[in-house]
Amino acid sequence: MERPAYTDADRNNFGPGPVHGHTGASAPLTDSDGLTSTDPPRESHGNAGDPDPGPNDTGATNPHTAETNGPTIIGGDVNAHNNSWDIHQPEDAEGHAIEAWATERGLTIANSGQHTRVNPSTGGRSTPDLTLVSGDLAGGAEWETGPGLGSDHLPIYLTLPTINQRPKRKGPGRFRQQKADWEAFRRHLDTEISKWPSHDAPLHQEESRLTGAIITAAKRSIPFGNGGGGKPPFWNESCQEAVDLREGAQSRASTPDHTADDIIAAREARQNATNTINREKTAYVNRQLEEMGADTDLWRTIKILDGRVPPAKPAVPIQRPPTAGQTAPTKAAVTDREKADLFCQTYAAVSRLPKRKQEDHAIKLSSRRAGKTCECGDTKEGFCSPFSRRELQHALSKLKSGKSPGPDMVSNDMLRQLSPTGETELLRRVFQEGLPQGSVMAPLLWLIYCNDLDEDINTNTTRSLYADDTALLATGPSLQACADQLQPDLDQVARWLDKWKVEASPSKCVFTTFSLHAKEVNGKVVPTLTFKGDQLAHEKNPTFLGLTLDSQLTFTNHIEEVKKRMAQRRCCLTALAGRSYGCDQATLRAAYIAYIRSVADYGAALYSTHAAPSVRARLEAEQHKCARVITGCIRLTNSETLITEAGLPPLAWMAKEAGLADLPREPLALVPEQPPWTNPADAVTFRLSLPRVTRRDDPPAVRKAAALEAIAMVNPDCTIWSDGSAKSGTRDGGGGALIQLHRENREVETLVPAGSVCSSMRAELAAMLAAFTCLLAQPGETRSRIKTCLLCTDSLSGLQLLQRGPEAQQLVLAERVWAAMDSLGEQNTAIILQWVPGHADIAGNEAADRLANRAAAECAQSETPIDLASARTAIRQRAREMQATRAHRHPHPQPTPGLQDLPRWGQVTVSQLRTGHCPLARATLHRLELTPDPLCRECGAEDTVRHLLTECPAFATTRRRLWGGPLPSLDEVLSGPAGKIVEYIRRVPAETLVGLQNLLVHLRDVSAENAHLYQYRLWDAKRVKLETAQNRGVSPDVAAGYRDGLRRATNGHPLSAEEVQKVVSRVPAETLVGLQNMLVHLRDVSAENAHLYQYRLWDAKRVKLETAQNRGVSPDGAAGYRDGLRRATNGHPLSAEEVQKVVSRVNQLSS
């Protein structure tokens, strides 16, 4: 039997098991049915093995306030001692009180006498954890402790064989569809369906057996996992070794003959295990972030970081109250399925329309007349025809892959992989009435039901119907005039709701006012409006379709809300990368655009054109913060330079800046023009390849021969050569077509404009539509001779778009092409669409190309509407042009090759250098008030980025070794490989010190008080490491030991192991209690860290100032070295002899 365990870490977390009548902090002991829980306990703060608590701290609650009814388990840290459960500590009054209380209530002490805690300081044993069980559970209860889990309390195992425990699962379990064998899935599905009886079954049985067949086939062909299991992903040998050492040390410290050293060793082993696990966690996360990309687990990671998860379902039974004419169910709903069924029953009970015989009589008569005059004439054609397999396959193709399955475990991927037999069975499901829960037909039918809601509304009133939301807008000289216009419309809506038995939601019915008049603005005048007899509430800032409105349409509140949401999501972006770790810039940019910028883009075309520039600047400021996260640049960076470096366009670039505001617009093809039960695709054949495979770089003669061979395979009555052209692929488009009527030995040319804003593919579609339209306009005798029509085009993307079918088109132009082909198909004309290579010296294709160029140049474009896709392309093109213009303001507009191949800290360093503000240069540090002057320590010139990379004579040799030849300019350095720039920075020591020897000399020259101040900086290793890594672009992880670090610190000159040891042994150090501690600290840190400390040691002025502020040390006010050391040692004075001894030791080392 599996034993449920608990530790002291769970003391305030109640599990499903019961806890009654507690006297301390309780813990879940088991998962048992039929037991109830009481109020949570008060936690005891005493420690077993320590002196007894005082009279005001009893360590437990009053036991007489607890009640015990039924099977009961009590567990907790009672901090009381009695020989009945604790033989290691003396008894106390609280222990006797608990024993008496348990005896009165018939509770049995389950403890076996083993200790449950080991004092980490003294090693003393005690049993402060008490477990009580009721008599009906005590017979077979087994109580024992297990090995430690890192706490001073041991885990307790309580086994109750009288309770049927549910098997534990490590996860909900799911199908591993990435490893599915779909061929086997379809084969097993056919086998299961073949076992069904031949007679029809009720709908719910059909659904159940089809779902069961799919699940059975999935279990035989798709691997299934129960989730979880195993060790954490970061776990490795270091973690396991540290945990084993901790367990061994704790075991030795728990023995009766343990020593003080065993206690210390156990404490150190516990801390070492914690540090090791945390270190491996951090390293694992950093590796995952470095390898993360936009096409990997980026979005899953963002979802986890975001933390926006739906609230947990209440784990309580639900009882439906009785309704009119019905009694309430006797059994409460407990499982998810029972609750779902209860919801459906409740919905069905409250959604029945009230019966009104007189009002409903006219509706019934109209319905009967409509049913008798079906347009199909009982032929079951057209709308009345059953769903075809093609419609089903099209619907299944729209399902998104990778989605989680529903409660029945059937996923979208399984439905998309149905066998032909499975599709046939799915088509047999017919709903006579009602709809399945969650069906997409429900909102569609509601749209049809309410479509005539606004028919009798005043024509001067603007209306907006979206799903179940209806908005009415009236304009007038005053707010009262607007109210007078709206009130009759509201009354009309109320009459429509009454007639069609629709209930409105009063709490959601509000009105707002918009005015610029000083006497009416901001709700100064609120007219009265009523709806169904109730007065409507006035809302100053309503939210309509996601936009927060205000009385003057300044959108200030909306922009503040958008800014707040962007700031919240920026926290996730910050967690993905720092200045020395994390994702690369391309991944961060993709995450920002899709996850953060999308919040600002929603409705931006509306609110950004009305909001004041000062208000829009708030969003720009938020984007600048995100750009600093992406690039790692500092605050000194110019805003335009920062945005350009991050590759982001400003938020102010809207569609009106692309010159599209005054152009006619083409409606979206939201609803297909052809009904889904028609099938014009039967008369159309797509041929997107040639008999012989060709490549674009093949000679024109080879591609021409392959195209002519494909054309020769068809004997058409009519051949159409079509082509489209658009300048730069985005504007002034035109289409041309050459129609060859072989039966009449004549040709027809047609030209058509594609619009001043269009894409090349749109121009190609316009040419096809013009050709088919011209063909349909021919005389009837000519059309009757055309049995086969061959259209040849070099637009492969256009043919691929049309091949999706008429119902999948979102462009009106593509739908019209399909409608034209459908019209030709109705005249018994077969259509073949053949792709041919372009610019292959094919006569017909070249002629169509010339016609397209003529159309683009000669046809009037102003009246041709633009579609959404072309508008998007034009906006993107315009944004690229504007961004290219702004890029010239960048200090270095040309990209640096290899930047994306660098690790995160390298990308940040190069970006900082490119923007001209990098903490590697003392001029930048001086502007940040981190250094007293901006001068280079080597040559005395101003230490700018240009000086650091190209001008400082101290590093001319390093530059010549890396770039060779004459010394490069700044543009040549930043235009070269990014890896060379990083290598150059690595070879240049921090603060331009020439090697580690300068550091040693500097330490010898400073006074004792200054040495103490430096020691503070050295002691604060974590802060120094973080600050320097961010400001210097130095990655401590790249150091390969102390020796390599010293090699970098000495300007590229390697040191032998003996020299390294010799240098380290000579470092003079002044610490709180002597000289040795700092030397030990330097030996323990990595080489790269020692190199980082060097930068902090050099900045003596700042160190002295900060230490005086942070540590309270004032060197100027100190009365000698003795007073300074007194402060440094937390107020403990040193004798004159001790001070002299320390000073002598410093002088001895310095000499």
From TrEMBL:
Example of a GO MF term = nucleic acid binding
Name the PROSITE patterns for this protein. RNASE_H_1, RT_POL
Reverse transcriptase domain location is 318-549
Q: Where is the composition biased (Polar residues)?
A: 58-71
Q: Which residues form the RNase H type-1 domain?
A: 714-857
Give the region (Disordered) as residue ranges.
Answer: 1-88, 313-334, 1109-1134
Spell out the GO cellular component terms annotated for this protein, sorted alphabetically and separated by semicolons: DNA polymerase complex
Write the record's keywords in alphabetical order, separated by commas: Nucleotidyltransferase, RNA-directed DNA polymerase, Transferase
Biased composition range(s): Basic and acidic residues: 1-11
The source's domain of life comes to Eukaryota
Transmembrane residues, as ranges? none
* The protein, known as: Putative RNA-directed DNA polymerase from transposon BS
Question: What species is this protein from?
Answer: Amphibalanus amphitrite
Q: Cite the source lineage.
A: Eukaryota, Metazoa, Ecdysozoa, Arthropoda, Crustacea
